[in-house]
C-alpha cells in the first residue's frame, strides 16, 4: 500500500520516561499536521517497530488472506498500518517497548493493536494516564497466569517461552516461566502481573473471537470487568490478523476514533454494544435477553449427553499416556434449531490409578449429521489466492 497523502516519517524519536530510560519510536504523521494538530494512535509491544521486528505476515500461509496491497510494509506486527491511518487523519507512533531492541503536545491519544498490543492496553489504561482518550484492544489476554501460562492450574508455558525468544533486547528480562515452575500457585508476584481492569474507565472498542483461544477469555473479561460506561465489543468472524486489515472493519474503527478523538457527532453511540459476527445477529447484551442455561447429563453407558439423569452410575476409561488415545467422547444430538452462546461448564467425577493429580481438558466440538468433526475456516475463501480449494487449507492452530 502506498501512502495516499504527503507524510512525515521521523525514525528513532527518543522518548524519555520518568526514570530516565529512553524509548525509541517511529512517528508517521500527515504533512498537514505542521499547521493543524492530529490525534495519535500508539501501538505498544516488544516485537520491534519499523524495520526491526522479526514477525511479519509473510511467515504464514497466504499472509492469512491479507494482500500486500493492504499494507505498506512499515507497520508494526499486529498493529494499525501507518499508510492507512495517516490517510485517515491520524498520526501513528510505533514504539519499541521498554527493554526491547534499541529502547533503553496536548491532544488526544488512543491505543490500538492486536494480541500483545491489546494486552498492554489493559495495563496502561488501568493506570489512567491523563492523555489516553480511548482504547481499542483488538483481541488480547489479560491475566497471563490464568489465561495462558497456568490455565486452570495446568502449567504450560511453551508459548510464552517462544514469545520471549522473539523479543530481543540489550538488557535483562524476567523469567516468568521459571517463576511459575518454582512457586506453582498464585502469589504476590503473579498478582502484580494482572491488570487492574476495574480501574479502566475510558471509551473502549474491543474485539474477541473463538478462533484464537489464547485471547478469548482475556478479551471478554477485560470488556466485562472494566468500568467504562461507553464500550463496544465486536466478535470477529475471521482470524485476528486478517480482521484488522479488512476495509469494513477499518471504516468501523474510524467512526469510533472520530467520535472520541475528534469529537464528531457521527451517531457512533447508536452502534449495538455487542455484535456477534459469527451468527450475524446483533444483541443489546451478552448473554442475550432470551438466553437460558440447560443441563445435560453424562451417560457413560452409551456415550451420550441427555436431558434426563441416567438411572444408574457408569464408568468410562481411557489411557491418558498414549498419544493415540483421544480420551472419552460424549455426544448430544439437537432435535430442533438451537443457538449456542456464552459460557459452558462441565462437572465431572474422575480418578487416576497410581497418581494423586491429573490434568483434564474439556472440549466442545460440532459434528455434522454423519458424526464427522467440523473445522472452522476463519479466513474467507475470496481472500485466498484464486484457485484455492478447501482441501488446500492447512489445519493450523496459532495458539
UniProtKB/TrEMBL annotation:
Xaa-Pro dipeptidyl-peptidase-like domain mapped to chain residues: 19-107, 109-152
Residue span, Xaa-Pro dipeptidyl-peptidase C-terminal domain: 266-373
MF GO annotations: dipeptidyl-peptidase activity
Any single Pfam family the record assigns to this protein: Peptidase_S15
Keywords: Hydrolase
Family matches, as InterPro entries: AB_hydrolase_fold, Xaa-Pro-like_dom, Xaa-Pro_dipept_C, Xaa-Pro_dipeptidyl-ppase/CocE
PANTHER family, sorted: COCE_NOND FAMILY, PUTATIVE (AFU_ORTHOLOGUE AFUA_7G00600)-RELATED (PTHR43056:SF10), PEPTIDASE S9 PROLYL OLIGOPEPTIDASE (PTHR43056)
Name listed for the protein in its UniProt record: Alpha/Beta hydrolase protein
Naturally occurring in which organism (per UniProt): Glomerella acutata
Amino acid at each position: 500500500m502506498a501512502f495516499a497523502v504527503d507524510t512525515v516519517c521521523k525514525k528513532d524519536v527518543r522518548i524519555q520516561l520518568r526514570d530516565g530510560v529512553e524509548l525509541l519510536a517511529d512517528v508517521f504523521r500527515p504533512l498537514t499536521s505542521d499547521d493543524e494538530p492530529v490525534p495519535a494512535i500508539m501501538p505498544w509491544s516488544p516485537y520491534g517497530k519499523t524495520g526491526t521486528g522479526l514477525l511479519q505476515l509473510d511467515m504464514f500461509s497466504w499472509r492469512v488472506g491479507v494482500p500486500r496491497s493492504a499494507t505498506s510494509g512499515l507497520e508494526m506486527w499486529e498493529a494499525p498500518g501507518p499508510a492507512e491511518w495517516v490517510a485517515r487523519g491520524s498520526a501513528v507512533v510505533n514504539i519499541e517497548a521498554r527493554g526491547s531492541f534499541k529502547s533503553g503536545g496536548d491532544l488526544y491519544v488512543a491505543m490500538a493493536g492486536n494480541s500483545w498490543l491489546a494486552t498492554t492496553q489493559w495495563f496502561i489504561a488501568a493506570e489512567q494516564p491523563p492523555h489516553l482518550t480511548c482504547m481499542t484492544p483488538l483481541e488480547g489476554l489479560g491475566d497471563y497466569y490464568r489465561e495462558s501460562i497456568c490455565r486452570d492450574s495446568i502449567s504450560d508455558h511453551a508459548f510464552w517461552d517462544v514469545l520471549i525468544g522473539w523479543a530481543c533486547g540489550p538488557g535483562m528480562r524476567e523469567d516468568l516461566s521459571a517463576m511459575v515452575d518454582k512457586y506453582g500457585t498464585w502469589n504476590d508476584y503473579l498478582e502484580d502481573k494482572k491488570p487492574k481492569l476495574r480501574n479502566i474507565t475510558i471509551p473502549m472498542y474491543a474485539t474477541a473471537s473463538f478462533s484464537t483461544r489464547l485471547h478469548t477469555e482475556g478479551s471478554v473479561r477485560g470488556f466485562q470487568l472494566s468500568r467504562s460506561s461507553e464500550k463496544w465489543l465486536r466478535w470477529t468472524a475471521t482470524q485476528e490478523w486478517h480482521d484488522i486489515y479488512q476495509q469494513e472493519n477499518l471504516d468501523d474503527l474510524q467512526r469510533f476514533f472520530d467520535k472520541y478523538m475528534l469529537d464528531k457527532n457521527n451517531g457512533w453511540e447508536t452502534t449495538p454494544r455487542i455484535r456477534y459476527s459469527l451468527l450475524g445477529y446483533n444483541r443489546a447484551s451478552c448473554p442475550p435477553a432470551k438466553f437460558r442455561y440447560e443441563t445435560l447429563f453424562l451417560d457413560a453407558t452409551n456415550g451420550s449427553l441427555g436431558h434426563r439423569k441416567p438411572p444408574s452410575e457408569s464408568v468410562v476409561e481411557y489411557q491418558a499416556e498414549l498419544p493415540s488415545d483421544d480420551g472419552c467422547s460424549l455426544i448430544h444430538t439437537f432435535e430442533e434449531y438451537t443457538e449456542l452462546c456464552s459460557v459452558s461448564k462441565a462437572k465431572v467425577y474422575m480418578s487416576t490409578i497410581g497418581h494423586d493429580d491429573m490434568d483434564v481438558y474439556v472440549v466442545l466440538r460440532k459434528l455434522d449429521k454423519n458424526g464427522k468433526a467440523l473445522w472452522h475456516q476463519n479466513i474467507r475463501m475470496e481472500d485466498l489466492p484464486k484457485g484455492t480449494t478447501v482441501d488446500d487449507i492447512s489445519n493450523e492452530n496459532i495458539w
